[in-house]
Design brief:
The complex is a heterodimer of chains A (466) and B (225).
Chain A: H1 4-56, H2 63-73, E1 80-85, E2 91-94, E3 114-119, E4 125-133, E5 137-138, E6 144-145, E7 150-157, H3 159-194, H4 196-207, H5 227-274, H6 283-309, E8 317-320, H7 321-338, E9 342-346, E10 352-355, H8 357-374, E11 380-387, E12 392-399, H9 405-410, H10 431-441, E13 444-450, E14 455-462
Parallel strand pairs in A: 9-11
Antiparallel strand pairs in A: 1-2, 1-7, 3-4, 4-7, 5-6, 8-10, 11-12, 12-14, 13-14
Helix pairs in contact in A: 1-3, 5-6, 6-10, 7-8, 8-10
Chain B: E1 2-6, H1 10-22, E2 26-30, H2 33-42, E3 47-51, H3 59-68, E4 74-79, H4 84-92, E5 97-100, H5 105-119, E6 126-129, E7 132-135, E8 140-143, E9 146-148, H6 152-163, H7 171-178, H8 189-201, E10 210-213, E11 217-220
Parallel strand pairs in B: 1-2, 1-3, 3-4, 4-5
Antiparallel strand pairs in B: 6-7, 7-8, 8-9, 10-11
Helix pairs in contact in B: 2-3, 6-8
The chains are: A alpha+beta (466), B alpha/beta (225).
C-alpha cells in the first residue's frame, strides 16, 4: 500500500531532480555561451590584427616580424595558429606552431568572418576563423592588374576553454548529486515530521473500542487541513457513543426486567422440588402468569423493534374515533370504577381519522391503560378531539400525583417507570414507548405535558407533511 | 432464628418465606419499604433479606437508616442489579452480603444461615456442648453420639440456645428470635418448648444441659455455674 508520505516523497524528489537538471543545464550552457562569445571576440581581434600586419607588410613577413610573433606562435607552446593562401590556393604563409598541419579553409569575409571548431591532425582541438583580405594587383610599373586576394585562417586552441567548461560541468554535477543526496534525506524527514499528526490520528483511532467511545480527537492542536476531519470524527464518535449507551441501557434494562420473573419461576420450581409438600395449589397458575408476563414483554419488544426498523405493516383507512374510544375504554372501565375514577369523552360524532385501525387501537389502549393505572383514587381521565380537513389533535388527560417535569421528559423511554420498584401488575414500562413508536409509524406524534394542576396530557397529532 | 424478608414481588415473597420457614426460620414478610424499615427497627431479627427496588422506600435507604441507628442486624441485599458498581455500592452502604436475581434458593438459604451464625460470632457450622452436637447446616442433633429427633420449633430453640451457649437467654429473647409475627404467643409457650426439649435431649443422657435461672431465663451448658 502506498502512503501519502511515500507518494509525496517520490513526487517531490522527482520534481527536485528535474528542476536541478534544468537549472544545471541552464547554468552550463549560458556560461558556455558567454565564454565562447568572449573567446570568439578575442579570436576575431587576433585574426584582424594578423590581417592588418600582413596587409601592412604586403604579405611578406620577414624574420623580424616572425620573431615578434614567435612568442604566440612558438611551435612548442603554441596557442595560436594561422595560414594564408593566394587565389590559386597556393600556401603563402603559415605559423610555425602549425608544423606540418593544415587548417581546413572555410569561406568568410573580413566583415562577416566564419568561425568554426576543428581539430588538428595532432588531435588538438582548436577554434578557427576564416577571412579574405582583398588586395588589388599591380604590375611591375605599378599599374593596376588582376586582384590578388589573400585567404587567411586564424585559430586558437580551446584547451583552456574546454578545461573550464569541464570543471564547470563537474562542479554542477557534483553539486547536483550532493543536493540530491541531501534532499533524499531531508524530504522524508520533513514529511514524516509534518505528517505526524496524521499518524497520531490513525494511532488514536486504532485504539478506540466499543468501551472507549468517550475518546475525542484533538482539534486545536491540529493543522488546518486536519482539524475539520478531526471535528467530523468527533461528531461521529459522539453519535456512536449515544447509540451504544442507548443500546447498553436497553440491554441492562431488559436484563433487569427479566431477572425478577426468572427469579420467580426458579424459586417456584426449586421450592416444589426441595419440599414437594410445600407446593401450593396455585403454583402452576403462578408459573403460567409469569410466562405470560414475559411473553407480553417479548411481544412488545418485538413490536417496538419492528416499528423502529420501519418494517411494521401500516395500512390506512378512515376510522370512526368515538366508537373506537368507547370500545377500548370498556377494557378499563371496571378498574376505573374500582378506583372511583371519573371518565369523560368529548369527541364529536362522525369524527373520522385516517389511520391504521389496529395501531390506533393499540395507541389508545396504551394511553388509557397508563392513565387508569396511575390516576390516583378519585381522579379523572378524559379524552377529547379536535379535527378539521387538515389537522387532527386528540388529547388524553388524567390526574397525576408526584410527577415532575423530568419524569415527563423520560416517560417515553423504554422501561421507564416512576417507581423503580416493579410490581406484579403486568406493566413493564414499554407501553408508552410502544404507543409513540406506533404513532410515528403512521405519521403521527405523541407529546406529554404536565400542567400546574398536575394534569398529565398526552397529545396525539398528525405530523405536517407526512 | 428470625428473619425479615422485604421484597415487593408477591411470588418471591411466597417462595422465599416458604423456603425459610421450611428451613426452620421464623419469617416476617413485607412488600413495602416503609413497613420493612418499621419492622426492622421494632423487632430483633437475626438476618434481613432486603430487596433494593421497593415501593415506599428503597432498600439502600432502609439499610442506611438502620446503620445510622447502629442496628446490628445482618442484611443480605437481594436485587436484579448486577453490575460491579451496584454490588460495591450495596456493600458500602452497610450490607453484609449481596445476591443477584435470579438466584438458587439453596444459595440464599446458605447465605442467610452464615449471616445468622455470624450474628452470634459462630464461625463453624458445628457446635458441641458436652456430648451434645448440633450441626446447623444439616439441622442434625446428636446426644451421646445418637440422633435426637426434634420438631422444627424445638430445633430452632435449641439452635438459638446453642448459638448463645453459656449466656442467660431471656424468655423475651427467645420469643423475639424463635417466633415470627404471625405466631400467637401464649404465656407458657416458651416454658412448654423448653420442657419438651429437655426431655428429648435427655433421652440418651440424663445429665441436664438446659438450666433455668429463675427470673432471668435459660442457659445451655454442661456446667450450670
Amino acid at each position: 500500500m502506498r502512503t501519502i508520505r511515500q507518494q509525496l516523497t517520490y513526487k517531490l524528489l522527482a520534481g527536485f531532480v528535474l528542476l536541478l537538471g534544468l537549472g544545471g543545464m541552464s547554468v552550463y550552457f549560458s556560461t558556455r555561451h558567454t565564454l565562447l562569445k568572449g573567446f570568439d571576440e578575442t579570436l576575431r581581434a587576433k585574426a584582424i590584427a594578423i590581417a592588418a600586419l600582413l596587409q601592412h607588410h604586403e604579405h611578406r613577413l620577414d624574420d623580424r616580424i616572425q620573431g615578434q610573433l614567435s612568442s604566440s606562435f612558438d611551435r612548442r607552446e603554441a596557442t595560436d595558429f594561422f595560414e594564408t593562401w593566394d587565389n590559386n590556393n597556393v600556401p603563402l604563409l603559415r605559423s610555425q606552431s602549425l608544423g606540418d598541419s593544415d587548417i581546413q579553409w572555410r569561406d568568410g569575409t573580413l566583415k562577416n568572418p566564419i568561425i568554426w571548431d576543428a581539430k588538428l591532425p595532432t588531435g588538438r582541438r582548436i577554434r578557427a576563423i576564416g577571412l579574405i583580405l582583398k588586395q588589388e594587383g599591380r604590375d611591375k610599373d605599378g599599374k593596376s592588374s588582376a586582384s590578388n586576394d589573400i585567404y587567411l585562417v586564424f585559430a586558437s586552441g580551446t584547451r583552456d576553454l574546454d578545461n573550464t567548461l569541464s570543471i564547470l560541468a563537474f562542479v554542477l554535477v557534483a553539486t547536483g548529486l550532493l543536493l540530491l543526496t541531501a534532499t533524499m534525506s531531508v524530504v522524508p524527514y520533513v514529511l514524516r515530521r509534518e505528517l505526524a499528526p496524521l499518524n497520531q490520528l490513525a494511532d488514536k483511532a486504532a485504539r478506540i473500542t466499543a468501551d472507549s467511545l468517550e475518546t475525542r480527537f484533538p482539534v486545536a492542536t491540529l493543522p488546518g487541513e486536519l482539524a475539520p476531519i478531526s471535528r467530523r470524527l468527533n461528531d461521529l464518535l459522539a453519535r456512536l457513543q449515544c447509540a451504544f449507551e442507548r443500546e447498553r441501557k436497553f440491554s441492562a434494562d431488559l436484563a433487569h426486567e427479566l431477572r425478577t420473573p426468572i427469579a420467580e419461576l426458579r424459586s417456584l420450581a426449586e421450592l416444589s422440588l426441595k419440599w414437594p409438600g410445600a407446593r401450593q395449589a396455585d403454583t402452576d397458575s403462578e408459573v403460567l402468569a409469569v410466562a405470560l408476563q414475559m411473553e407480553g414483554m417479548v411481544s412488545k419488544l418485538l413490536a417496538l423493534l419492528r416499528s423502529e426498523q420501519g418494517v411494521l405493516t401500516v395500512t390506512s383507512e378512515d376510522v370512526a374515533l368515538l366508537p373506537l374510544v368507547r370500545n377500548v375504554w370498556k377494557v378499563f372501565a371496571e378498574k376505573a370504577a374500582s378506583k372511583n375514577i371519573r371518565w369523560g369523552v368529548n369527541i364529536p360524532d362522525q369524527t373520522n381519522v385516517n389511520a391504521d385501525p389496529i395501531l390506533l387501537r393499540s395507541i389508545l389502549y396504551g394511553l388509557l391503560d397508563n392513565a387508569v393505572e396511575y390516576t390516583p383514587h378519585g381522579g379523572r381521565v378524559s379524552i377529547e378531539c379536535e379535527t378539521n380537513a387538515r389537522q387532527f389533535m386528540m388529547r388524553v388527560t388524567n390526574t397525576s400525583e408526584h410527577l415532575t417535569a423530568e419524569d415527563v421528559s423520560k416517560m417515553f423511554d423504554r422501561f421507564w417507570r416512576k417507581d423503580a420498584a416493579r410490581f406484579n401488575d403486568g406493566h413493564s414500562g414499554l407501553g408508552l414507548s410502544l404507543s409513540r413508536a406506533f404513532a410515528q409509524a403512521m405519521g403521527f406524534e405523541i407529546l406529554a405535558a404536565l400542567d400546574c394542576k398536575s394534569q398529565l396530557t398526552f397529545s396525539i397529532f398528525r405530523v405536517s407533511g407526512f | 432464628m428470625r428473619v425479615l424478608l422485604v421484597e415487593d414481588s408477591k411470588r418471591l415473597q411466597a417462595t422465599i418465606s416458604a423456603a425459610l420457614r421450611r428451613s426452620g426460620y421464623a419469617v416476617d414478610v413485607s412488600g413495602d419499604g416503609t413497613e420493612g424499615l418499621w419492622l426492622a427497627e421494632t423487632n430483633q431479627y437475626d438476618a434481613i433479606v432486603l430487596d433494593i427496588m421497593l415501593p415506599g422506600m428503597d432498600g439502600l435507604s432502609i439499610l442506611k437508616k438502620l446503620r445510622q441507628k447502629a442496628e446490628p442486624q445482618r442484611v443480605i441485599l437481594l436485587t436484579a442489579r448486577d453490575t460491579i458498581n451496584d454490588r460495591v455500592h450495596g456493600l458500602e452502604s452497610g450490607a453484609d452480603d449481596y445476591l443477584v436475581k435470579p438466584f438458587a434458593l439453596e444459595e440464599l438459604l446458605a447465605r442467610v444461615q452464615v449471616l445468622c451464625r455470624h450474628t452470634y460470632g459462630i464461625e463453624q457450622p458445628q457446635i458441641k456442648i458436652d456430648d451434645l452436637e448440633i450441626d446447623i447446616t444439616a439441622k442434625k442433633i446428636l446426644r451421646a453420639g445418637r440422633l435426637v429427633k426434634l420438631k422444627p420449633r424445638e430445633y430452632l430453640l435449641l439452635e438459638y440456645l446453642a448459638l448463645r451457649a453459656g449466656q442467660v437467654v431471656s424468655r423475651s429473647d427467645i420469643e423475639a428470635h424463635i417466633y415470627d409475627g404471625e405466631t400467637d404467643l401464649m404465656s407458657n409457650v416458651v416454658e412448654s418448648a423448653i420442657s419438651s426439649l429437655r426431655k428429648k435431649i435427655g433421652a440418651f443422657n440424663p445429665k441436664p444441659l438446659i438450666h433455668t435461672r429463675h427470673g432471668l431465663g435459660y442457659i445451655l451448658g454442661s456446667n450450670p455455674e
